[in-house]
Specification:
By secondary structure, the chain is an alpha+beta fold. It has five domains: 34-186, Jelly Rolls (Sandwich), CATH 2.60.120; 206-372, Jelly Rolls (Sandwich), CATH 2.60.120; 380-521, Alpha-Beta Horseshoe (Leucine-rich repeat, LRR (right-handed beta-alpha superhelix)); 549-664, Phosphorylase Kinase, domain 1; 673-895, Transferase(Phosphotransferase) domain 1 (Transferase(Phosphotransferase), domain 1, Orthogonal Bundle). Helix content is 19%, strand content 26%. Strands 1, 7, 10, 13, 14, 15, 16, 20, 23, 24 and 26 form an eleven-stranded mixed β-sheet that branches. Strand 42 (722-724) and strand 43 (730-732) form a beta hairpin. Helix 9 (687-707) packs antiparallel against helix 11, helix 13 runs antiparallel to helix 14 and helix 13 crosses helix 15. Mean pLDDT is 78; it is low at 6-28, 281-287, 507-576, 739-747 and 873-897. GO terms for molecular function: ATP binding; protein serine/threonine kinase activity. Residues 1-28 form the signal peptide.
């Protein structure tokens, strides 16, 4: 290879410089600025600030462009101060519509500002109200009070990922809209009050002493903060024209133009300021006024004589926050209230101390609301990766806002993990038939927790990339018709050979034979912590084949690829899984020696695989009412269900007269055995452990109801069907009674009554009509068992008592002590217990339409778990009489839904 000579290098450098000259230069100080004129169709430079404003089409996929009415356009009449007020984007459709601002730098601080001018754009003259969210956290309740007013709100926050979502939520009180949206990077040393868990929302900003009706912003403020002029009737203004003021040396860096004017009292030695904060709309979730920060900026503007002094105290709401303050000449001094306080008013008094010859001074102030960011956002790495995918392939699937939160607005095609203490991770991605074209980008490999990936029926190009093998948890990959071609990378081939991956891949050209069409369907074995993706029941055509019991000594770990047709029994599947012979089951279970319990299919036996993994072998009893049909039903369901709170399946056996399913062994047994004291565990479940188990089980049921299409109803939810693994994580088992709704929109089906006494939905028992609320009822009974430690049917001297009837007297009298399991002692959060009890009673209402959903149960249990976690170090005492928490009063909230 020749080395380019010096002349060639100079030519190349000159060419690069020429190309660079064609690019529009970024104005000094504007690096990282994003300025969006919403609803505008072209780019322009603002006449006042010279900031470059762009249309919003690259930041959002939804909404409609509009202009304010001709009347209000005439009122503005080209006023440069309102250049961004003419256009807007409205959102008549959808609950949540989000702007995605990128690029930003994860962990850096940003100022974001949104403007709203209604201007009767829709001709309805109806002033809307809606919510503005930053990611999944409420930023502001937008309430338009005047058609002509140009309103704005501003927040300072840390970027949770390499993009920031700003979302407008429809509250059914008018159509949300936005006029402009701005993002400004801040120096990380500014506003130490802001971190990943808290933000600052601007309440008020005052440039004291300025007499003109002006607003100071960029370029006078390099961060483009807004400063509104303010001078009270009993203040007078002083100013300096000196150019020696350097505002950059102060912690909060108010601009020098703001600091070069100040207010002093017209007479006397006291400056006063008052603001009624009750007019500000609080957060929905706040109790009382929110917490405020106040920043007061001072600078001496006069060169004082030897005998002159300006010394003062600063009192905020009767608390002195600054003693003997002596502002420095041409330098900023900032006084704050130190930590956020709940204020319903700001009463400020700045007064001179004894011996001061000059009155106090105030140059500027800013008041912020401190907002805690309590919601867990999707893991930033996953957000960045899925955003890259969205923009690379121009995905149009309502992908906006946080990918995983809230649950009801989770992005289409995604499944997310739902752990309490960790940020959600994307574990399943379905991009089938989405028109993807070009090469598969490496950002897919950044979804490191991905378990399932479907890229089928697309127009991708190139060979199957090696980086897919880096997805350590991936156990299902569908490339059928994706456009990708072979050969299969060695690392993926290795996973296939070890049975760690199911690959569906057809119609590719193998490099060895370009004309040969290959179809690969490889069974998979999932790791201990994840569910098996496919289950197969293999129906032998040969009815009397002699079984080789020597196979009990051999356990093949290789994957199987099989396709079955219909046999005489009418059982037919095209499913995949490991097949066990009956002889193998004999060896695995040591001739069915150890019985674990009785299930809907008959007896469950303990077994050990060749690699040492424990399994539970569920063998269909000949006397069981569940025959091949129910066995088929369970197998079909298990091929669809993948969730960390559902029991994983290892394989199956259909060998002449023998039907069996082989599950991963749950080391800690059933929840029933622990609550009844028969598990052998010497310690009692704490309330926090019970909450964790309840939440895990609820999430498993929620997945059956919301994450599966068609909807799956369990029909036999009970404590003996909630199993616990070695980490005491709950897993739902036994889907043998499950039924599937074959069509969306069907709210119930009529079926034979099946279930367990004590847990059975009374409405289902009467009407034979089944829906998800039947599971909700049963889960409510489970919650009552966790609270009370009692079984669903309680034995008594006279006659058995149902657990709902047993708790009712305690509920009516507000006597929590009479209800709660005494083995818990008094180490629990009273409010947490009450909330779970409320949820249980809301689950077990007699009429199904009055019951809450499993998604609501999950939400309530998460709240309770966080409440218990927040109080881990607190001993929670419980009075033995009436509790201050009234279950009757709190239940009204459900009744009014």
């Amino acid at each position: 290879m020749e080395t380019p000579n010096r002349g060639t290098c100079l030519i190349l450098i000159g060419y690069v410089l020429f190309l660079s000259s064609l690019q529009e230069p970024v104005s000094g100080g504007q690096e990282g600025f994003i300025s969006i004129d919403c609803g505008k169709t072209y780019t322009y430079h603002d006449k006042k600030t010279d900031l470059k404003y762009v249309p919003d089409t690259n930041f959002i996929d939804s909404g409609e462009n509009n202009q304010i009415s001709s009347y209000f356009r005439g009122v503005l009449d080209g006023n440069a101060d309102y250049a961004q007020s003419y256009n807007l984007r409205s959102f008549p459709n959808g609950t949540r519509n989000c702007y995605t601002l990128r690029p930003v730098i994860k962990g850096s601080k940003y100022l974001l500002r949104a403007f709203f001018k209604y201007g009767n754009y829709d001709g309805k003259d109806i002033l809307p109200r809606f919510d503005l969210y930053l990611g999944e956290n409420l930023w502001f309740h937008v309430q338009i009070v005047n058609s002509s007013r140009n309103s704005y709100t501003e927040i300072i926050a840390v970027a949770p990922a390499n993009s920031i979502s700003v979302c407008l939520l429809n509250r059914n009180t008018g159509v949300p809209f936005i006029s402009s949206l701005e993002l400004r990077p801040l120096n990380d040393s500014l506003y130490r009050e802001v971190d990943t868990s808290s933000s600052l929302v601007l309440r008020s900003t005052l440039d004291c002493g300025e007499t003109g009706d002006i607003q100071i912003r960029y370029p006078d403020d390099s961060y483009d903060r807004l400063w509104n002029t303010y001078l009270r009737y009993n203040w007078t203004s002083i100013r300096t024209t000196s150019d020696s003021f350097d505002a950059t040396m102060s912690e909060y860096q108010p601009p020098s133009k703001v600091m070069k004017t100040a207010a002093i009292p017209k007479s006397g030695f006291e400056l006063d300021f008052y603001s009624d904060l009750e007019k500000f709309e609080w957060s929905k979730d706040a109790v009382g006024p929110p917490k405020h920060y106040i920043f007061l900026h001072f600078a001496e503007l006069e060169s004082l004589g030897i005998n002159d002094s300006r010394i003062f105290n600063v009192k905020l709401n009767d608390e002195v926050i600054g003693y003997n303050v002596t502002p420095k000449y041409m330098s900023t001094t900032t006084i704050t209230n130190g930590k956020p306080r709940n204020y319903d008013k700001i009463s400020l008094s700045i007064y001179s101390v004894a011996g001061s010859t000059l009155p106090p001074i105030l140059n500027s102030l800013r008041i912020y609301i401190s907002k805690q960011l309590n919601e867990k956002n999707t893991h930033s790495q996953d957000v960045d990766a899925i955003m890259d995918i969205k923009y690379e392939y121009k995905v149009k699937m309502d992908w906006m806002g946080d990918p995983c939160f809230p649950l009801e607005l989770r992005w289409k095609g995604l499944t997310c993990s739902n752990e309490i203490t960790k940020s959600p991770r994307i574990i399943s991605l379905n991009l089938s038939s989405r028109g993807l074209s070009g090469k598969l980008i490496e950002s897919v490999a950044d979804l490191t927790e991905l378990e399932q990936l479907d890229l089928s029926i697309n127009n991708l190009e190139g060979e199957i990339p090696d980086f897919l093998a880096n997805l350590a948890h991936l156990y299902f990959l569908n490339l059928t018709g994706s456009g990708l071609h072979g050969p299969i990378p060695p690392a993926l081939q290795h996973k296939l050979e070890k049975g760690l991956l199911t690959l569906s891949f057809e119609g590719f050209r193998n490099s060895a034979n370009s004309k040969k069409t290959v179809v690969i369907v490889v069974g998979s074995v999932v790791s201990v912590s994840f569910l098996l993706f496919m289950v197969l029941i293999f129906v032998w055509r040969r009815k009397n084949k002699k079984k080789d019991l020597e196979s009990s000594k051999r356990y093949s770990s290789s994957p199987s690829a099989v396709l079955l047709n219909q046999n005489n029994d009418g059982l037919h599947f095209q499913l995949k899984s490991r097949k066990f012979s009956y002889g193998e089951l004999i060896g695995i279970t040591n001739n069915f020696r150890k019985v674990l319990g009785k299930g809907g299919f008959g007896t469950v036996y303990h077994g050990v695989m060749e690699n040492g993994d424990g399994v539970a072998v569920k063998v269909l009893s000949k006397l069981s009412s569940q025959g091949p049909k129910e066995f088929q039903n369970e197998a079909q369901l298990l091929t669809r269900i993948h969730h960390r709170n559902l029991v994983p399946l290892v394989g199956y056996c259909y060998d002449k007269d023998h039907l069996a399913l082989v599950y991963e062994r749950m080391e800690e047994g059933t929840l029933e055995s622990h609550l009844s004291g028969t598990s052998g565990r010497t310690t009692v479940f704490s309330w926090r452990e019970r909450l964790k188990i309840a939440l895990g089980a609820a999430q498993g049921l929620e997945y059956l109801h919301k994450g599966c299409k068609p909807v799956i109803v369990h029909r036999d939810v009970k404590t003996s069907n909630i199993l616990l693994d070695r980490k005491m994580e709950a897993r739902i088992s036994d889907f043998g009674l499950s039924k599937i709704f074959e069509k969306d929109g069907i709210t119930h089906i009529t079926t034979a009554i099946m279930g367990t006494r004590g847990y059975l939905d009374p409405e289902y028992n009467i009407t034979n009509k089944l829906n998800e609320k039947s599971d909700v009822y049963s889960f409510g009974i489970v919650l009552l068992e966790l609270i009370t430690g009692k079984p669903a049917i309680i034995r008594s001297t006279f006659e058995p008592i149902h657990i709902i009837d047993w708790v009712q007297p305690g509920v009516e009298h507000g006597d929590l002590y009479a209800i709660v399991d005494h083995k818990l002692g008094d180490l629990y959060n009273v409010n947490s217990i009450w909330k779970v009890l409320e949820a249980a009673l809301a689950c077990t209402r007699s009429r199904s339409f009055e019951r809450i959903t499993m998604s609501e149960v999950v939400f309530l249990l998460k709240e309770c778990f966080e409440l218990e976690t927040d109080n881990d170090n607190t001993v929670h005492s419980v009075s033995h009489g009436n509790s201050s928490n009234s279950i009757g009063n709190s239940m009204k909230n459900y009744d009014n839904d």
